[in-house]
Amino acid sequence: MNERLFNIYFEGGEEQRLDKFLVTALPELSRSRLQALIKAGLVTIDGQMARKVGQLLVKRAQVQVRIPPPQPSDLTPEAIPLDIVFENADLLVVNKPAGMVVHPAAGHSAGTLVHAALAHVSDLEGIGGEQRPGVVHRLDKNTSGLILLAKNDAAYHWFQNQFRARQVGKMYLALVDGAPPTPHGRVEAAIGRDPAQRKKMAVVPPKKGRLAFTEYHTLQNFPAHSLLEVHPITGRTHQIRLHLAFLGCPVVGDTIYGRAHPSLPLNRHFLHAARLTIRLPGEAAARTFEAPLPEDLTRVLEGLDNGHR
After folding, report:
1. Could you tell me which residues come within 8 angstroms of residue 167 by beta carbon, excluding any fewer than 6 positions away?
2. Topology of the domain comprising 169-308
3. For all residues of the chain together, what is the average pLDDT?
4. Catalytic entry in 19, 90, 123, 140
5. Is 140 tagged catalytic?
6. What does pTM read for this prediction?
7. CATH topology for 71-164?
């Protein structure tokens, strides 16, 4: 992929910081990415290298930004089969299986969704100057369903802005132990680190965490379980699992926030990202993507149905 060159004109008037001006002029790049380009000497003002990210633009000037080709990722692509729900030049929508970690991290240096995507996409433009897909949102290792990966900076920020503005429709299917206090409802409870176990999250007082909102709707009742349609409005870590446990109806198979021993024969928690509604770059109307309930979860539901008859 070749170097890209942008010539932008600051028209004068009210003085403005260079980095703030560039964020407005090049919205497809993050402020941190633009600051890195300035520090690397890749931004000039009237032919002179910019001195610092906060340099003030006062009078009319030509600002030139050079974006070098993306550097190869230090990750090794892995030819892991992926269930691709949708793909174009900007994104991948993947139906992630349970058990697959999304992003490389300590203890997960291989076999992740990112490794698989690197092998699948041969012409990846990359994110932040590196040839790797942009993980716009996350799914827990043992949560199956829809996840979106951006192929370039412009798409990454397009999607991030929609998630920040809560303009993305997300629907999960969750089977829970017991039943929520009302058939339909909304949970509003802050989430933060568990003060007793720092590797876990917890519902905490508002001043000690970040507010989180989850709406739910009961689809089916069983003698000891309920199938819920869940809509997380915010996107906090472990939000759905925590909020449902907070209601007294933890997700079946969730041994961290629910029962230590699953109430049904299941090797993971019963949580599936079934539907995602979002606007794609350059499109005015939102699109909706769907992923059917996987086999292991379908078997559990069928077992409940048969036992209920």
Report:
1. 278, 279
2. Pseudouridine synthase (3.30.2350)
3. 91
4. 140
5. yes
6. 0.84
7. Pseudouridine synthase (3.30.2350)
